[in-house]
Design goal:
Belongs to the acyl-CoA dehydrogenase family. Keywords: Branched-chain amino acid catabolism, FAD, Flavoprotein, Oxidoreductase. This protein is of the alpha+beta class. The chain folds into three domains: 109 residues, Butyryl-Coa Dehydrogenase, subunit A, domain 1 (Orthogonal Bundle); 107 residues, Beta Barrel (Butyryl-CoA Dehydrogenase, subunit A, domain 2); 148 residues, Butyryl-CoA Dehydrogenase, subunit A, domain 3. Helices cover 50% and strands 14% of the residues. The protein contains eleven helices and nine strands. Strand 4 and strand 5 form a beta hairpin.
Length: 381
């Protein structure tokens, strides 16, 4: 009876491979990456050797052609060690998938071989200084000039900016609104591409975040991903998967903190008794575990819907992202509280996860926007 809710043998094998990679390559180093603001490029490349640089890129293009549930399992496992690194790998995968799914053969041949191996890394560029939640109001322009587009504008809060070699960028080629947006693959070294200072962030210290600026950048027309005017649709389809992965990163980070809290409360004694024996502690841990399982079940369901291209996939992706990221932050906050003053110290991992997971409620669409998406679907006639 439980088989329909269980993972397959292949999915369990993928999950176990990701967990082992995390235990060996991510968890032992994550605190140093955070403290010293180290971008672990070699670790990302090592993940790509397992296929994690092209999780849902088709096998014909060199990827491993898995579904969104398998991707969520991988992201969840890696976030157990470092949510910032796992989320970065998710963004790279989203950009690579967009090129594979919508790019011409010319664009695929040009970029996918290097993206699959993580010799090149890719960023997703949608947000601008004046357009965040209202993404369709973006102002970066691409004007046709013979065999080139001339790109001008800037993008804000771009993960990997300055480090990554490729920027899958939403630009305005036509009228105002979503129908005038197209998608271009822009290389780091194209003349006119520049980057702002690395943002001084609360968390996600293991990956760079900068502004990307375009000053009369000449981009070959062949670098168009999809057709003119299809960029907004492509961007939103990419976000369905990105939202699942960010939710999965919250689950992985929260699970780590729950495990840490269980162990800490077993070891820590107050008034001559392990605090795990106190009923209040047990109730708190029980709620944390229950909420985490509920979020995981919803996220896995949403992942299956996105893989199947179900009519309600976007609604479920938004529901799962909102619930998983809010739940993850809540679980980590309670884990910190159970650690008392020690949870506030960098000697323990909790404070790092508390900082890293906080941004998940903002990126890939704020959780307020997730509610708008769900509410709109529920009330549509």
């Amino acid at each position: 009876m439980t088989d329909q809710f269980d993972l397959t043998e292949d999915q369990r094998a993928i999950q176990e491979m990701a967990r082992k990679f995390t235990a060996d390559a991510i968890t032992p180093n994550a605190a140093e990456w955070d403290e010293k603001h180290i971008f672990p490029r070699e670790t990302v490349k090592a993940a790509a050797e397992l296929g994690f640089g092209a999780i849902y890129v088709s096998e014909q293009s060199g990827g491993i052609g898995l579904g969104r549930l398998e991707s969520a399992l991988i992201m969840e496992a890696m976030a157990f060690g470092c949510p910032a690194t796992s989320a970065f790998i998710s963004i790279h995968n989203m950009a690579a998938w967009m090129i594979d799914r919508f790019g011409s053969q010319v664009v695929k041949d040009k970029y996918l071989p290097r993206l699959v191996t993580a010799d090149w890394l890719a960023s997703y560029c949608l947000t601008e200084p004046s357009s965040g939640s209202d993404a369709a109001a973006l102002k970066t322009t691409a004007k046709r000039d013979g065999d080139f587009y001339i790109v001008n504008g800037s993008k804000q809060f771009i993960s990997g900016a300055g480090e990554n070699e490729l920027y899958v960028t939403m630009v305005r080629t036509g009228v105002d609104g979503p129908k005038g947006i197209s998608c271009l693959a822009i290389e780091k070294d194209m003349p006119g591409v520049s980057f702002g200072a690395n943002e001084r962030k609360l968390g996600w210290h293991a990956q760079p975040t900068r502004q990307v600026m375009f000053d009369n950048v000449r981009v070959p027309v062949e670098n168009l991903v999809g057709g003119e005017g299809e960029g907004f649709r492509i961007a939103m389809m990419g976000l369905d998967g990105g939202r699942l992965n960010i939710g999965a990163c919250s689950l992985g980070g929260a699970q780590r903190c729950l495990n840490e809290a269980i162990q800490y409360t077993r070891d820590r004694k107050q008034f001559g008794t392990a605090i795990a024996e106190f009923q209040n502690t047990q109730f708190t841990l029980a709620d944390m575990a229950t909420e985490l399982e509920a979020a995981r079940a919803l996220l896995y369901l949403a992942a299956a819907k996105v893989t199947a291209n179900a009519p309600d996939k976007t609604k479920f992706a938004a529901m799962a992202k909102r619930f998983a990221t809010d739940t993850g932050s809540s679980v980590v906050d309670r884990a910190l509280q159970l650690h008392g003053g020690y949870g506030y110290l960098m000697d323990y991992p909790i404070e790092r996860f508390w900082r890293d997971l906080r941004v998940h409620s903002i990126l890939e669409g704020t959780n307020q926007v997730m509610r708008m998406i769900v509410g709109r679907e529920l009330t549509r006639q």
